[in-house]
Write a structure and sequence with these properties.
alpha/beta; Rossmann fold; Ubiquitin-like (UB roll); 4 domains; 21 helices
Length: 497
């Protein structure tokens, strides 16, 4: 009987030597005359343990990690195929506190299944949402998603059901579903993990969205730096057969510009044009891709839909707090001891996430600042670490949850330098269409340089410039750049002295 061994094929695991480990395991098994099957699963998101090898045994699914090529001979000597004792043995991975304390909904199959197998996906509950949606009217699907309280997981947190209803109610011969998988925020990787570890979940969510609004064509716009995700999605689509009915999906490789993560610039790019922000109105839900009504959601939003359909709106709505319902896969990065993915319901505090899951700083020094929501998110000082992870709670302190990316800094960070970085980032990545963003960011870098050189009387000028960018820019690229700049200036003013 064949023994199943899981070795992640996730990009993070590959960067840490997973391919070489898989080859070493295959070679060692042949030497020991063992019949094994190696499954290249997704990562569980415990990156400090990658490559994480799991074996199905009579004791359950036993994990070992982090495994290097040099460890493989001793693992086989310790009888890894039967869950033998070894210094790298972690036991049942699900019992590790990092995973046991989570509530995985959207990411429930990531790291568990064979991402290349549709049958394995369906064996683990996949496909039930689409099957149910096929027996419902479009209005019923939209109402269910609305009742679940799902909001966009890409940054703006706009209610998904309202967006879908707008597209449903707009008359057109052709409508589109567009997945924004241009995951470019610093410290974010949840979209990539879904695409590489559970691609059928995203595909199913898009098909359900198509049934909900009357669309038969979808596009997945994937970050150009994600070749493994692109390959996984294309392989899944090739294997899907008639599972999706008449709904067709095409994977598009992104243009490599951060601003193409903005929904209208993304549409321009799919249409073969330069990625420049469009004026609104009209909204993409009314006139989007090729001038047709278009649903644009990010990966986590669409990947949450199959479970909402399969388990019911109330099951999802009962998780979370206030208007922030369900769960969000938070991503811990930067100077953090246990970097990885943590999916929990809204309502935890930032401090709990940083210390109960992240274990504090990797350097062992005190955490001084945390940036939440990507390179345009605010820097939060230690005094704000007890803020609840909730869209409205973050808005109340001038911050954003965004895509759930969290980058930690210890007390050696220069926050004036970080503020300059935000302005410089905007200057480089601006599409150039509007003056406040294009020129304001360049002037911002110059003003910060003068302040750092001692011209402290220019701090009011920097604040005035930030106000102009906030209220005068066409999109979030320019209007959000002041978030990190002003938060650094407000909470870490001593660094500007």
């Amino acid at each position: 009987m064949s023994i199943t061994i899981f070795v992640p094929g996730d990009a993070a695991a590959l960067a840490l030597g997973a391919d070489e480990v898989a080859v070493a395991i295959s070679t060692a098994a042949a030497k020991h005359k063992l019949d094994i099957e190696i499954v290249r699963n997704g990562s569980r998101g415990l990156f400090w343990l990658e490559p994480l090898v799991e074996v199905i045994t009579e004791q359950g699914r036993i994990a070992y990690g982090p495994v290097t090529v040099a460890d493989v001979p001793s693992l086989f000597s310790a009888n890894i195929t039967r869950g033998g004792k070894h210094s790298l043995r972690l036991g049942d991975i699900e019992t590790l506190s990092y995973l046991a304390k989570q509530k995985r909904v959207t990411m429930s199959r990531v790291g568990v299944i064979d991402p290349a197998s549709l049958s394995d996906y369906r064996k683990h509950g996949g496909g039930k949402g689409l099957e149910l949606a096929q027996s419902m009217t479009s209005a019923e699907i939209v109402r269910l998603v609305t009742d679940s309280g799902l909001r966009g997981r890409g940054g703006a947190a706009f209610p998904t059901g309202i967006k879908w209803k707008t597209v449903l109610d707009t008359t057109a011969d052709q409508k589109y579903i567009v997945c924004n998988a241009d995951e470019g925020d610093s410290g974010t990787f949840s979209d990539r993990m879904v695409m590489e570890g559970d691609p059928y979940c995203l595909i199913e969510g898009m098909a359900i969205a198509g049934l909900a609004v009357g669309a038969n064509k979808g596009y997945i716009y994937v970050r150009s730096e994600y070749p493994h995700a692109i390959a996984a999605l294309n392989a899944a689509l090739d294997s899907a057969g008639d599972w999706l009915g008449d709904f067709q999906i095409e994977v598009r490789k992104a243009a490599g510009a951060y601003v193409c993560g903005e929904e209208t610039a993304l549409l321009e790019s799919i249409e073969g044009k330069r990625g420049i922000v469009r004026s609104k109105p009209p909204l993409p839900a009314i006139s989007g891709l090729f001038g047709q009504p278009t649903v644009i959601n990010n990966v986590i939003s669409l990947a949450s839909v199959p479970d909402i359909l399969a388990q019911g709106a109330a099951n999802y709505r009962d998780l979370g707090v206030g208007r922030s319902r369900g769960t969000l896969p938070f991503q811990l990065a930067g100077n953090i001891k246990y970097g990885g993915l943590v999916e929990v319901p809204f309502g935890l505090t930032l401090r709990e996430l940083l210390y109960d899951f992240g274990g504090g700083s990797r350097s062992g020094r005190p955490l001084r600042a945390v940036q939440v929501g990507g390179p345009l998110g605010a820097y939060l000082p230690e005094s704000q670490f007890d803020t609840m992870l909730d869209y409205e709670a973050f808005a109340a302190i001038g911050a954003v949850l965004g895509h759930g990316g969290i980058v930690a800094f210890d007390d050696t960070v220069d926050m004036a330098k970080q503020a300059r970085y935000a302005m410089k980032f905007c200057a480089i990545e601006s599409c150039g269409k509007c003056t406040p963003c294009r020129i304001g960011s360049t002037r911002g870098v110059e003003v910060i340089d003068r302040i750092r050189a001692g011209a402290h009387e220019q701090i009011p000028l920097l604040r005035d410039l930030c106000e102009t960018m906030t209220y005068g820019s066409m999109c979030a690229m320019g209007s959000m750049t002041p978030y990190p700049v002003l938060s650094a200036l407000n909470h870490f003013q001593e660094d500007f002295q």
